[in-house]
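Supplementary Text 2. Reproducibility record for the structural model of the 228-residue chain.

All settings were left at their defaults, and a single model was retained for analysis rather than an ensemble. We include the record here because the model underlies the residue-level annotations in Supplementary Table 4.
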Amino acid sequence: MISILIVEDDADVGNLLTQYLTLNDFKVERVYNGKEALSALGKSCFDMILLDVMMPELNGFDLAQKIKAKNPEQAFLFLTARAQKKDVLNGLKLGADDYITKPFDCDELILRIQNILKRYPKKELPEQYILGDYVFQPHTLSLIHNGKEETEQFLTQKESDLLCLFCEHQNRLLRKEDILKNLWEETDFFSARSLDVFVSRLRKYLKQDSCLKIESLRGVGYYFRVEK
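Retained model, structure tokens:
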């Protein structure tokens, strides 16, 4: 099922969108401002994001910049009353797949969403990664050593997301800045310290296999060494 995040502070418009998209078999989550949107994106992935521009806390243009910094492949469109040419151009320059002005036709909106998503083939996580003596299953957040159920370690979603990044970049430099943008949405000191904590946890979980190492390159990033 296609998942959509609606970022809209107008109650009537938000309710209309939620009801109509749900009736058309989309999975919908609705938030009211940019800060709530960033929180939702930190917890879940969405196939499409519908953004208003004029919102409290964080406007749609600024939110779009943060979204693209975190995930350059994220599909999104603006749905807004701001119809001036300069606003349309600004939205498209920020990477929006479309810019739709209010009032809008719901049937046309759905067709535009469907056409956009045809350009974004959905990347599925593998059922499992074989990491030396470990089997990592990202869909169940499970890490098992030597096939023994009693060794099963359940990861948090953030731990799992980080380990997935390492798995996709085995034996290659993974820059700290890229990790932070992908998983923390910020690159400040506190986010960096949080990342260090999560790396320490993964090292602890993987310590039973000496062929697996997460090496730090001070101030730059990490190498996930898989020697088997």
